Amino acid sequence: MRDNYIKITKRERSAPVYRFTTIERLLNMVVQKKNILVTPRKWDDPFENALAMHIRLLRPDGSTSHYPFRNRVYGQCWTHTKETDAFWRMYVPKGSGVRLRSTIRKLYKSLEDKCPVLYASMACFIGKVDYKSSEEITCLFNSKKWVNNNFRGQGTYGHVDTLLLKRREFEPENEVRLLYLDPHNKDHGDFFPYLIEPSSVIEEVTFDPRMEDIQYSTYESILRNYGFAGEINKSNLYKAPDIEIRI
Q1: Which of 85, 117, 123, 247, CA to CA, is 20 to 30 A from 178?
Q2: pLDDT (tens digit per residue) in 127-143
Q3: Residue 40 half-sphere exposure, CB side, CA atoms within 13 Å?
Q4: Distance between CA 227 and CA 8 in Å, rounded?
């Protein structure tokens, strides 16, 4: 029987996950006490959520339509990778980023606890991204088994699975995704916010290693003034080593 932790074992639920984002988004989270998921329409890769955004359904009479639940989907991307130079440079402007640390269980529970519908099991999911070639993804969508699961059986789980597909070229991202699928097919626009207590979800905030120390101290004070109780530090990725060589 499937649960709402997709491709995640019970032991892995306590594993740390990380999110590289901007200071502005972090401050919005801490001040407003909201976590914000976004529609896959705003994701860059055209293969992202291909089912909801791009695929056309061909009916026996020759007519076509889009997947009926294409506007009900919201997600947020995290990673198992703690830190790389590429992550800081890819995901945040120079010197103005942060890395958030949570766990898979804390993320999922934060969404489940504030789920706006009666049955969270139909709406809230978290899962590992499965990386496949473009050909494998296309072949999957053309298989009878996949069609049966999506349109004649496990429709919700089938839709979740498509949200956890990505091309193999992106495998270094090592992603985990927090997902909300509105069971009433309600379109919330581009964003789906829900209330959280930031200190109970975010265990650590790490500031950009390129940030000036005075900026770091200022942002640290702001977070503390708004009640954030988690660990706060600055990455030492680019810190010069202190090495002595005996001669």
Answers
A1: 85
A2: 999 999 988 888 887 77
A3: 28
A4: 32
